[in-house]
From TrEMBL:
Gene3D superfamilies hit by this protein: HUPs
Coiled-coil segments on the chain, per record: none
The name this protein goes by in its record: DUF218 domain-containing protein
TM regions (residue ranges): 12-34
UniProt KW keywords: Membrane, Transmembrane, Transmembrane helix
Organism: Candidatus Komeilibacteria bacterium RIFCSPLOWO2_02_FULL_48_11
GO cellular component: plasma membrane
Length: 194
């Protein structure tokens, strides 16, 4: 009889704990999305996003424009472009980004194309090797604000010294929606390292 009374209370306590933990993580991701760690670095790193037939998607273009501004303001002497080739595509996100930046006046000598990653984690793992091979230390990661917590955690786990200079979402509802999604993705990363 005691087990029948105890089980629903224990189940409720576990569910309440998991909901509180999820809400706490969501809050951390949302609040951190307003931060910006922009500072001098050895490299600016643009994390990939979709490209359409060689042209950056609006999301990728906003990251590239932010990286271009950082480069032009002298924050770092080189821009790494990450992102592989998507299904049915013939060009990588990294190459599409490099083309766009060259068209915007960035010297090809300042661009490093690294198309080996098809996920954020794979891109950062490849970046770690490329940075080490060039003797570079601090990287400034450029992505959208809702990614900041996860990419900072991934970089730390891989051993990349990194700060985040995010593209800030202009619409608060988009930020909330993406923070919700990012909370799920962050939990998947913590549990499965994917």
């Amino acid at each position: 009889m005691r087990i029948k009374r105890f089980f629903p209370k224990a189940l409720f306590a576990v569910i309440a704990f998991l909901c509180a933990a999820w809400l706490t993580l969501f809050t951390i991701i949302f609040v951190y999305s307003f931060s910006d760690e922009t500072q001098k670095a050895d490299a600016i790193v643009v994390l990939g996003a979709a490209q359409w037939n060689g042209a950056p998607s609006p999301m990728l273009q906003s990251r590239l424009d932010h990286a271009r501004a950082l480069y032009n303001e002298g924050y770092a002497p080189v821009i790494f472009l990450t992102g592989g080739i998507g299904n049915g595509e013939t060009i990588s996100e990294a190459e599409a980004g490099a083309r766009y930046l060259r068209e915007q006046g960035i010297s090809p000598d300042a661009l490093v194309i690294d198309p080996r990653g098809s996920t954020t984690l794979e891109s950062l793992q490849s970046l770690a090797h490329a940075m080490a091979a060039r003797g570079l230390g601090l990287s400034m990661l450029v992505s959208h604000d809702f990614h900041s917590v996860r990419i900072k955690k991934m970089a730390k786990d891989i051993g990349i010294e990194a700060v985040v200079s995010p593209v800030h979402s202009k619409n608060i509802f988009d930020k909330l929606r993406y923070a919700f999604r990012e909370t799920v993705v962050y939990v998947i990363y913590i549990l499965f390292k994917k």
